[in-house]
Amino acid sequence: MDGTYSQNDLSHVVDADKAHVWHHLVQHKQFESKDPNIIVEGKGMRVWNQAGKEHLDAVSGGVWTVNVGYGRERIAKAVYDQLLRMNYFAGAAGSVPGALFAEQLIAKMPGLTRVYYCNSGSEANEKAFKMVRQIAHKRYGGKKNKILFRDRDYHGTTIACLSAGGQDERGAQYGPFTPGFVRVPHCLEYRAADQGAPTEGYGEWAADQIEQVILAEGPDTIGAICLEPVTAGGGVITPPEGYWQKVQDICRKYDILLHIDEVVCGVGRTGTWFGYQHYGIEPDFVTMAKGVASGYAAIACCVTSERVFDLFKDDASDPLNYFRDISTFGGCTAGPAAAIENLAIIEEENLLENTVEMGDYMMGCLLELADKHRVIGNVRGKGLFLGAELVADRDTREPAPEAKVQAVVGDCMAQGVIIGATNRSVPGYNNTLCYSPALIATKDDIDQIIAATDSALTKVFG
């Protein structure tokens, strides 16, 4: 840390924080006896808190966001220059960075053509849900309005997004929920036995379970299905072989729109621009947020096909026929200005290639840890998005207690390495360590992450 802030400054910041800030996902009772953690500075993959302690960040800003690392001056300068020239105008009008980023983004998403700007992943998913509902009214007399979602997937924090959330602890105490959202089973092959699934052909079996739900609900009532390409906070679940092609075939069979939630996986996290591009599928909607500008400015996008866009473009006399939606800060130019530079950095520094190479290296390291620690039941992931599921018994696959999983996270933090884990999300299955280092990660960075995990597992589980 470069000492820009004096200790008196930071003491005041801590006091102000404790007195006035309501933190995300935190029980504040603890701050009656200790100080909150305040991140003061970041550079590359490392951050420093108010005490000057350095941490290697293996979760890209805590929630899978800072894909190109901290301290990128060119992004900050691009935002500064843009804000001086033109900072904001409502999204009913266009902007220079909005048009240019949309053009660059669409060039990386064959088959998709339109970008709707907003400012968070939850909001991007809400836009898609609203589009589906409006299409139901415009084309199907309001009937084809239900939206399928998958167990263990997560799509955001609003009431509608929680209604489409497959993590019951995230939604606890926030009901009643929005009607018209219907759950389908997860596709975690490691937990196939818990579903009574066959040992062979699990991917197609899991997709068949979606079709069974569609038939039970009535295909003429289902408008869309919303899925993560790789389930993120529900346990870093990579889809099994045969799954995605069968899901796409089912959607086409019943005229169901396919909505891929790339809020976590999008813009390089898995080694391709978007996670769905590993699996040869052609979505109707793709939503994204976190990595779009690597956290340097707030931006989210709901991207659609021209087929979807054309459903809202007509000369009908009905004055309600267009998509009547607004996102106030979707008109802020900082987001697309930052996103343009973010894309340029990924391309110029070959970060997709690095993500594949370092992801393979880290996967190998985690598998070696699994050979050493029987508490690791399963290792899975794609690119620099990896998970290690911890179990109390490898033979029965009984999940490790959540408290012990969190103790591993806490011990890594004490060692100066920030890792993540599923927590307060999926009842009984909050047992997966989560890793998502920035796309700039080196072997030395990964070795440090693995060494901290190794030490923590030994300390917590023996």
Automatic annotation (TrEMBL):
What class does this enzyme belong to in the EC scheme?
transferase
Cofactor dependency: pyridoxal 5'-phosphate
Which top-rank group of organisms is this from? Answer: Bacteria
Give this protein's Gene Ontology molecular function annotations.
pyridoxal phosphate binding; taurine-pyruvate aminotransferase activity
User: SUPFAM superfamilies per the record?
Assistant: PLP-dependent transferases
Q: Does the keyword Transferase apply?
A: yes
One Pfam family it belongs to: Aminotran_3
Xref: CDD domains: OAT_like (cd00610)
Q: Which InterPro entries match?
A: Aminotrans_3, Aminotrans_3_PPA_site, PyrdxlP-dep_Trfase, PyrdxlP-dep_Trfase_major, PyrdxlP-dep_Trfase_small
Q: Which UniProt keywords apply?
A: Aminotransferase, Pyridoxal phosphate, Pyruvate, Transferase
Q: What is its EC number?
A: 2.6.1.77
* Family of the protein in this entry: Belongs to the class-III pyridoxal-phosphate-dependent aminotransferase family.
Q: Which protein are we looking at? A: Taurine--pyruvate aminotransferase
Organism equals Tropicibacter naphthalenivorans
